[in-house]
Amino acid sequence: PATIYLKDYKEPDFLIETVDLTVELGEEETIVTSRLAIKRNDETATKLSLNGEHLTLQSVKMDGHMLTPDEYSVTDEWLHLPVAAITSEFSLEIITRIKPQENTALEGLYKSSGNFCTQCEAEGFRRITYFLDRPDVMAIFTTTIVGDGDRYPVMLSNGNLTLQETLPDGRKRVTWQDPHPKPAYLFALVAGDLAVVEDKFTTRSGRDVKLQIFVEKGNEDKCDHAMTSLKKSMKWDEEKYGREYDLDIFMIVAVSDFNMGAMENKGLNIFNSKYVLASPETATDADFDGIESVIAHEYFHNWTGNRITCRDWFQLTLKEGLTVFRDQQFSADMNSAPVQRISDVQGLRAAQFPEDAGPLAHPIQPQSYVEINNFYTATVYEKGAEVIRMIHTILGEENFRKGMDLYFERHDGQAVTTEEFIAALEDGSGIDLTQFRRWYITPGTPEITVNEKFDAETGQYTLTLAQTNLKAGKDPEPLHIPLKLGLLDVNGNAVPFSDGPFKGETEGVFDLTKKRQSFTFSGFSTQPRASLFRGFSAPVKIRQESSDDALAFFFAKDEDLFNRWDAGQRLASNILLKQIEDAGDGTSLPSAFLDAFAETLSDKTLDRAFTAAALTLPGEQDIAQKMPVVDVDAIHRVREGARRQIGLTFEDDWRRIYEECENAPSPANQPASSSRKLKNTALSYLIATGQEEFITLADSQYRKSKNMTDSVAALAGLKDINHPVREAMFADYYEKWQKDALIVDKWFTLQAMATRESTIDDIKALMEHPAFTLRNPNRLRSLIGAFASGNPVYFHDKSGDGYRILSGVIAALNKTNPQIAARLVAPLGQWRRYDKDRQDLMVTELEKILKLPDLSDHVYEMANKSLH
Ligand code: HT7
Ligand code: ZN
């Protein structure tokens, strides 16, 4: 397969000014008539090449003249048309036939639960008709949909509805016009028998926008939270960024078969139903949070992605990194900011750090790709967001806003590069970002080594930080890294800086720009303690020799809640790693840890959701990242041992907390979800004690529960044990919820992540369950994705069965849905991190994948990079 390079970017030879599409929906096939107004963009071009895949070409007319097949050429991927050198403008009419009913890849036009829908990003439009399917070709679209009005009473596309009629043959015809020029990847079409929930939003300039959420009938009562989230997002973008919505209607459609989370098509967002449908009985608090942030994310794309789009797909982080940053800011404003930051960083460390440390590492702006779908990665999205956050930190809120204002003003209506984005931020803020630009082209997570020196005689304290990055090539140029720093005295009080740029303040952002750099602070009678990278001010790993006492100090005292949580995580990791080294079982926990833990446990001033996060041990995969050779069994052993010990040591506290959170109302300013979080953390520790009484407690919680959060917590608490209560609970849950796909997904996930001896057999049996299918991405992720990414002990089972299960699924999906198949390869790509036996087993499966007949480019790229 061909590799595409950023350095080869060339402007399009031709531009498309307007597109007039007529889509005639049929049960066997769909006929697409596309009328294009084309304008020359390169004087020398003599050929127009249009992208097109899986299309049957019926006819081509140029300026009204029907072309004969010898006047053009068609391949599996292109339609080539000669264009006379003197022609500056011309029209094309192209008729193609497609079969959405047979489209299992869920790209282009396809059917989901009987409804037609589209997914065109990144290169799906070429599966609908021949087109210049690249984001720097922005056209004005008019879309006419024709079809059976009984089957498909709802017919939607981008923009405003301008015509609706019944044709003489009884079919329904509607026309939508989108006044905003857009790339084809933002095109959308939906047709089906859907219910609609409506509301309205009045913009700050006084315009009324109709808001509509379309869902399968029967789900109308699960749209409130999505609608509220949408209205909050619209308001927030006006207040925070001065961005107003620009059409009279904003529609969201929820579909059950969707490759990703959602899609920001202009005026017609299409969502995985997982990110729309929720009621307390059917969705967990985490689901509610996910909906709020994905609704916001897609809505925010209207300005960062749609009005200003990407010049080419190498610029993907321009819209995705920026929009993730914006949705994270929004969620922090709507909820507890520190809890949100902790959750964002947990996500980054869990998904992006391993990617950046492995064979699939790439900069947030990749320089080449085989298949662009493989680059919708945690690096482009989440690290991309961290890069924008660092710019925000360096510039400060006010200057960042000035830069963003200039970006919107300068580039509205354009398809631009990340360079143009940074230039606008520089020009708007007046702050030089020359060195900062390196973040865009540097793969790998920088490591920061920290050394401290204190001179008791002069009262000077010197911090020396050195940056390295093994993935960035030999002797890489240093990055510009913002260091948010605070100094604490022995009692944990913040100490104001006595000199320098932050004199008199207790926190400052320092610029790390050299490979090795020292900062000296004076005026101390005793050595201060440095709270470094507060709020995770840069996506780096800190290498610092910190004693348990020092970490326990920050865990108990740091006023920066992110660093307080992080110190607890580092302390716990260090202890568990030491236990692994000593072949321990996790049960002997040092008093420094237990004392600090107790302090947090009894601190009633903290948000309960924060307390829950602070009292949860680092995940097995977090600990794994700190081991030179990952030992999944030892990690599980010591972590579970420690959980049991913490459960027993603080049993009375956990009981008290459980009661308080269950029965007393949440403290002022704290949502009920914070109490549920802490209560369920207590439940999990109580169950970890191994006492029967707490299995009964979980059982009674499950039986009494009126909300999905508590039900799932009870199931999760018992998932790893062999007990009749466990079996009865899982059976009851399935029985009760079997008709609701999103709830059944949770049932699969909980079992996929169980650590019982029978887990592998359970997973094999679940793959044969009547409710399991490879065709639905949510269901597939719920079992196979959750197993491969969330069950290290059994995915890495010594038998190699876990690896074989995964590669078998990849093989089965390679042809039907290559995008999803390719996304499953990454866990095997981590093979270098394991012992020799496991390495061999994983490599064998990667080699098997590479030998598959008709291997898709998607899977090839991921497996090939993973292996070499
Ligand atoms: N911009 C959207 C990306 C997306 C996508 C990409 C490839 C294949 C399927 C897809 N569905 C959605 C989603 C977003 O980041 O907002
Ligand atoms: Zn996005």
UniProtKB/TrEMBL annotation:
Keywords: Aminopeptidase, Hydrolase, Metal-binding, Metalloprotease, Protease, Zinc. Its EC number is 3.4.11.2. InterPro entries: Aminopeptidase_N-like_N, Aminopeptidase_N-like_N_sf, PepN_Ig-like_sf, Peptidase_M1, Peptidase_M1_dom, Peptidase_M1_pepN, Peptidase_M1_pepN_C, Peptidase_M1_pepN_C_sf. Residues 548-868 form the Peptidase M1 alanyl aminopeptidase C-terminal domain. Residues 226-439 form the Peptidase M1 membrane alanine aminopeptidase domain. Its cofactor is Zn(2+). One of its GO terms (molecular function) is aminopeptidase activity. It is an enzyme of class 3 (hydrolase). Residues 444-544 form the Peptidase M1 alanyl aminopeptidase Ig-like fold domain. Belongs to the peptidase M1 family. This is Aminopeptidase N. The lineage of its organism: Bacteria, Pseudomonadati, Pseudomonadota, Alphaproteobacteria, Sneathiellales. The gene is pepN.
